[in-house]
Amino acid sequence: MLALMPLGMMAQGDDFGLDFSLEAQKKINKQWNVSLEGELRRRDDAKINDRWALGLSVDYKVAKWLKATAGYTFLYDNNQKISYYEITDDAVIDGDAEVGDPKKCAQYWAPRHRFNVSLTFDKKLFGDFRFSLRERWQYTYRPEHTVSERWSYLNNAYDGKEKTYGGKGKNVLRSRLQVEYDKKGLAVTPYANVELFNAWSLQKVRYNVGLDWKLSKQHSIGAFYRYQHVRNDDDDNDPNIHMIGLGYKFKF
Predict the structure, then answer these.
(1) Among 16, 17, 19, 186, which residue carries the largest CB count within 10 Å?
(2) DSSP code string of 98-134
């Protein structure tokens, strides 16, 4: 899986970020689990808060090898919207700017609502190696948002004009293939996975390597390294990014 990572993943211009998460999980019975998770992401070389998130999910064990999940996540994002000059703009016609130059920028915090359902198939093969395939449908709705002004790159000042970004919904199919070393009695479980994001076309790919460390029956921590390669994701403006993640999980 590591060999499949694109050769250009270390190219200049890639961002670096951090991901922190806290999760509480309650086992109702042998089939049902409920989880509540909070998350914070940082971007721009980990200098800026990128996202706060709070999610609730429910798992149902359909069979020993099959799990169904449904969930909702509230996202509060730090958005950066940049427009670019086109050939019909007056500044281009007058020779003050060129086509493709950045025109105006709006940076603001705004909410998103995300719903998902998924099926996860998993099975042990080759001894203690566990393979899993998760297919997840995800719908995200971004409400309409109005900013009071935008920064003009040409004038080097705010334009003093309102700009409204319309509400928008987006469907994504996320397919994740994972392998982990799940040896009975071993507190540490290393894993690696690759995840594809499809919305009528392949938009981005995530590569993850990490480990989960079970401290006790109730407490566990996890760490991972992620590389996200963006192919065609104009809606979210996500960059290619290297990310380090740390998480804590409590079961009760």
Answers:
(1) 17
(2) -TTSEEEEEEEEEEEEEEEEEEEEEEEETTTEEEEEE
Count CB-CB contacts under 10 A for residue 109.
Answer: 12
The torsion angles phi and psi of 87, rounded to 5 degrees, stand at -65, -25
Q: Are 85 and 152 in contact (CB under 8 A)?
A: no
CB 56 within 8 A of CB 36: yes
Provide block-wise average pLDDT over 10 residues at a time, the chain (252 residues): 47 85 95 97 94 98 96 96 92 91 95 98 92 98 96 93 94 97 92 95 95 95 96 72 97 92
Report the length, in residues, of the chain. 252
Cα(10)–Cα(96) distance, integer angstroms: 35
DSSP secondary structure of 164-233 = EEPPEEEEEEEEEEEEEE--TT-SEEEEEEEEEEESSSEEEEEEEEEEEEE-SSSEEEEEEEEEEEESS-
172: how many CB neighbours lie within 10 A of its CB?
A: 21
Task: Judge whether 193 and 179 are in contact, CB under 8 Å.
Answer: yes
Q: How far apart are CA 169 and CA 235, in angstroms?
A: 10
Beta bridge partners of 68: 60, 119
